[in-house]
Design goal:
CATH class of chain A: Mainly Alpha
Largest sheet of chain B: 3 strands, mixed
Order of helices and strands of chain A: HHHHHHHEHHHH
Helix content of chain B: 10-25%
Oligomer: heterodimer
Keywords (chain A): Membrane, Transmembrane, Transmembrane helix
Number of helices of chain A: 11
CATH topology of chain A: Formate dehydrogenase/DMSO reductase fold
Distance between the termini of chain B: 80 Å
Radius of gyration of chain A: 21 Å
Protein name (chain A): Dimethyl sulfoxide reductase anchor subunit
Radius of gyration of chain B: 25 Å
CATH architecture of chain A: Up-down Bundle
Order of helices and strands of chain B: EHEEEEHEEHEEHHEHEH
Structural class of chain B: alpha+beta
Pfam families (chain A): DmsC
Number of domains of chain A: 1
Shape of chain A: globular
CATH topology of chain B: Alpha-Beta Plaits
Distance between the termini of chain A: 14 Å
Strand content of chain B: 15-25%
CATH superfamily of chain A: Formate dehydrogenase/DMSO reductase domain
GO molecular function (chain A): dimethyl sulfoxide reductase activity
InterPro entries (chain A): DmsC
Chain lengths: ~300, ~240
């Protein structure tokens, strides 16, 4: 599948923003974060900035962005529509949260924060299900895809929260969360990558109904130039590059941030190390998301290439 | 609404039956489809850089050619690929705007180009590659089963068929109601053992592909004696003379 930059950026940026919103809304009432309204407002501003930038980028992907409001109508059948509805609804408690913090109403802030956390989780789940519901793409139609979106969103959001917390003087709790979520993300990605290697949704024999004759091989293509299908769904990445990129994503996006979080918690320097960890995590996730597309194969390529 | 219509017993299921035995891969159906649909329901059907290198465009019908099987049992099969108007059409249910829909009255899957946002998700959801984006208009386009021909009372009744069916010189394409077990197309599917494509994905395509007819096993050819098998030189000479 073609890794469109707008979608790669959207899912990474909005994912991190929703993760940050989720942890902010959930952990603040538990007293695990700095309680100053300025801290919460900074985190909330960063979360909404990332979410809004990501959603804006996703509109660039559309052929007719001025009609995007129509995408809120088909929530009964479409995960993309559900994602849009969840994203739009999440703005309400998130903005209410900010207003309550600003106006100094702690009870309302707690309630709105929890609702915003719920909305953030729901939105990211819908994003994951858009991909997980597509049967022609076996690397996406996989039980680890939607949980993966949730976990990676939680991980990158926590990395951001730890970075802002470190600037506010709180290190230990958020840093240990970064380590735990990062280790979980490594396990999940390793398991996912192992399971998708060599996975096939179908064969050319089944795609052409000619399997009873024997093996089927493409002889003449229907057209000599490329087309939308091949550009959008025929994107291929060499296996050796994929293996290398996976290692870079794992080390740069997960292992190094975990190491930096441990260093920051044990030896200090958190104000520098944790923001660096967050930037590395986001860069690693951009690569991970790019690979998520580049490694995905669509059944339409069976008709063109036989594999 | 992009929920699929509730299945109605005895409802019409219009579709195509494509005979892989007689298709000669002439591309006539694809060309005729492009010609009709460039000015019909889905008009325009764009071409990008049509007169220079890298010319490409939106087509609703693409004719592939395959080799199947090995050696004497192997054969070349020409394979037209277009929308199968699936009963369980995921391209419809994934649509976030309601632009992609399946008609309750005849099962045709269509796109409303006035409400499509061009997100491309329906093309991802189609395992058959039936949908192609009109990148000029920013909306998705697809086979309409020539909905603007088959009900068109301004053209002679005999021509109220999809353009691809009318164009086929070997009558390898048949159009009809596959929801009616007594229709000509349904009988054809039953007689010839019509096959769905990618049945394991569960899309339940309406279009059906008739398999190439099984050829009788070729009779084993007996080795004819060559002149060198004849030991007697005189008889060998006579065999040569008489064989002239």
């Amino acid at each position: 599948m073609n890794p469109a930059p707008s979608i790669v950026f959207f899912t990474t940026a909005s994912g991190a923003g929703y993760g940050l919103l989720f942890w902010l809304g959930l952990l603040r009432p538990l007293g695990l974060l700095p309680m100053a309204p300025a801290f919460a407002l900074t985190c909330l501003g960063l979360a909404l900035l990332l979410i809004t930038a990501g959603l804006g980028a996703s509109l660039l992907h559309l052929g007719n962005p001025q009609r995007a409001w129509r995408a809120l109508t088909q929530w009964r059948s479409s995960w993309l529509s559900r994602e849009g509805v969840a994203a739009a609804l999440t703005y309400l408690p998130a903005l209410g949260f900010g207003w309550a913090l600003w106006a100094g109403m702690p009870g309302l802030a707690t309630l709105a924060g929890l609702l915003a956390a719920l909305g953030a989780a729901a939105t990211v789940w819908c994003t994951g299900m858009i991909y997980a519901s597509l049967k022609p793409i076996p690397q996406w139609h996989h039980p680890l895809v939607a949980p993966g979106y949730l976990l990676l969103s939680a991980y990158s959001g926590m990395a951001l929260l730890a970075a802002v917390s470190a600037l506010g003087g709180v290190v230990g709790g958020p840093a240990s969360f970064v380590v735990t979520l990062g280790l979980g993300a490594i396990v999940l990605k390793l398991a996912y990558w192992q399971m998708i290697d060599g996975i096939h949704a179908a064969s050319i024999e089944s795609a052409t109904s000619l399997g009873w004759i024997g093996t089927v091989r493409p002889l003449d293509p229907p057209h000599t130039e490329t087309n939308y299908l091949l550009r959008e769904m025929g994107f291929r990445i060499a296996r050796k590059h994929a293996a290398k990129l996976r290692r870079i994503a794992l080390v740069g996006g997960f292992a190094l941030p975990i190491l930096l979080a441990i260093l920051a918690a044990q030896w200090g320097g958190a104000g520098l190390l944790l923001p660096l960890a967050a930037l590395l995590a986001l860069a690693g996730l951009l690569l991970e998301r790019w690979l998520m597309f580049a490694e995905a194969t669509h059944t339409v390529t069976l008709y063109y290439r036989g594999t | 609404m992009t929920c699929l219509p509730d299945p109605v017993p005895s409802a019409k299921k219009l579709g195509l039956v494509i005979d892989l035995d007689t298709c000669v891969g002439c591309q006539g159906c694809a060309t005729s489809c492009k010609e009709w649909n460039a000015s019909g329901h889905s008009a325009p059907l764009p071409d990008y850089r049509p007169y220079s290198a890298g010319a490409e465009g939106v087509w609703f019908n693409r004719v592939h050619s395959y080799e199947a099987g090995e050696g004497a049992a192997g054969r070349t099969v020409h394979f037209p690929r277009s929308c199968l108007h699936c009963e369980n059409a995921a391209c419809v249910t994934v649509c976030p705007t309601g632009a992609s829909y399946k008609r309750a009255e005849d099962g045709i899957v269509l796109v409303n180009h006035d409400t499509c946002i061009g997100c491309g998700l329906c093309a991802w959801a189609c395992p058959y590659g039936a949908r192609e984006m009109d990148e000029d208009a920013g909306v998705m386009k697809k086979c309409t089963l020539c909905v603007d021909r088959i009900y068109n009372e301004t053209i002679p009744e005999a021509q109220r068929q999809p353009a691809c069916v009318l164009a086929c010189p070997t009558k390898a394409r048949h159009f009809g109601d596959l929801g009616d077990p007594d229709s000509a197309v349904s009988r054809l599917v039953a007689e010839r053992g019509g096959q769905p494509l990618l049945p394991e994905l569960g899309y339940r395509p309406v279009n059906s592909y008739l398999p190439p007819r099984r050829r009788p096993e070729p009779a084993p050819v007996e080795d004819a004696p060559t002149p060198m098998d004849i030991g007697n030189p005189l008889l060998r000479w006579m065999d040569r003379v008489l064989s002239r």
